[in-house]
Design a protein that fits this description.
single chain, about 300 residues, alpha/beta, 7-stranded parallel sheet, 3-stranded mixed sheet, 9 helices, about 35% helix
């Protein structure tokens, strides 16, 4: 009998990649909940049952009772940089609580929740480990941390694996999302436009390819446990280095417009993923150049 898997945010960037992987494994009955706020339109394969709904909507309970999922991947979130505090609270706090509450009522066996590097804020030591202080400097980071705390509250009802993702990139990424700088640079160069670098461009990021992220999600499904894990490449890359490498791969000159530092932008983010290796036997497989080539190929095909 196929396991029933419900994915919130299944029409989004990471959600669509996860969906493809689960379909390819051909052993799950898949349901998707998404309000389609991040995509203009989408078509799901015939074997996927789609429900259009916001995760904070009280009617979500009817979906859970109808589907009776065994596994929930909670990926849906408002991760737009321009979102207000009230918008992130509605989606990322109230929405997450609603998912967890309905999961409890539906007797779900396992929840996998996607969080963010933004929960750490400006860390003092690197690479960042899971037991480091969490001091978000943005409404988004604070909302994600609050979502994590609710997940911990519900761990007495079912295992909840919490993933803190570094800067995820890859084919299908929305350039307006948190960490969408890869998509932004590629689009600018392909359109012969000049990208913008904020501050000095020396800000350090940890870029992780979307296929490696999906590997972690699948491993969590196969090894249910209540834990919090960093998922990153552990490879430091400056924004300027990213721009130069992207320009080189596309064959464009390295031109950019300098603008002042933006508020609530972290200076450095670099993850240790040792705990994910220990708990899930997960390893990042894709280096930045290879991942960028795959992403550029995707944007060229549009």
């Amino acid at each position: 009998m196929s396991l029933k898997v419900l994915i919130t945010g299944g029409a989004g960037f990471i959600g669509t990649h996860l969906l493809k992987r689960l379909i390819a494994e051909n052993k799950y009955k898949i349901f998707v909940v998404d309000n389609l706020s991040a995509v203009a339109k989408t078509r799901f394969p015939r074997q996927v049952k789609f429900y259009r709904s916001a995760i904070q909507d009280p009617s979500l309970g009817k979906i859970f009772q109808q589907v009776k999922p065994q596994i929930v991947f909670h990926l849906a979130a408002d991760n737009r940089i321009i979102s207000s505090a009230s918008e992130t609270i509605s989606s990322n706090v109230i929405g997450t609580f609603n998912i967890l509450h309905q999961a409890k009522l539906a007797k779900v066996k396992q929840v996998i929740f996607t969080s963010s590097a933004a929960v750490y804020g400006e860390s003092k030591k690197f690479p960042i480990q899971e037991n480091f202080p969490t001091k978000p400097i943005s409404a988004y980071g604070l909302s994600k941390l609050t979502g994590e705390l609710y997940c911990q509250l519900f761990q007495k009802h079912f295992p909840v694996t919490i993933f803190r993702f570094a800067n995820v990139y890859g084919p299908g990424q929305n350039s307006s999302s948190e960490g969408g700088v890869v998509a932004i640079f590629i689009r600018k160069f392909l359109e012969n436009k000049t990208p913008i670098i904020y501050d000095t461009g020396k800000q350090i990021r940890d870029f992780i390819y979307v296929d490696d992220v999906v590997d972690a999600l699948i491993l969590a499904l196969e090894k249910p446990q209540s834990t919090t894990l960093n998922i990153g490449s552990s490879q430091p890359t400056s924004i300027l280095k990213l721009l130069k490498l992207t320009a080189k791969l596309i064959g464009r000159p390295v031109n950019y417009i300098s603008k002042p530092k933006r508020p609530v932008e972290i200076g450095k983010s670099l993850f240790s993923h040792e705990l994910a290796v220990k708990k899930l036997n997960w390893h990042p497989k894709t280096d930045l150049a290879d991942g960028l080539e795959q992403t550029i190929k995707y944007f060229k095909s549009l």
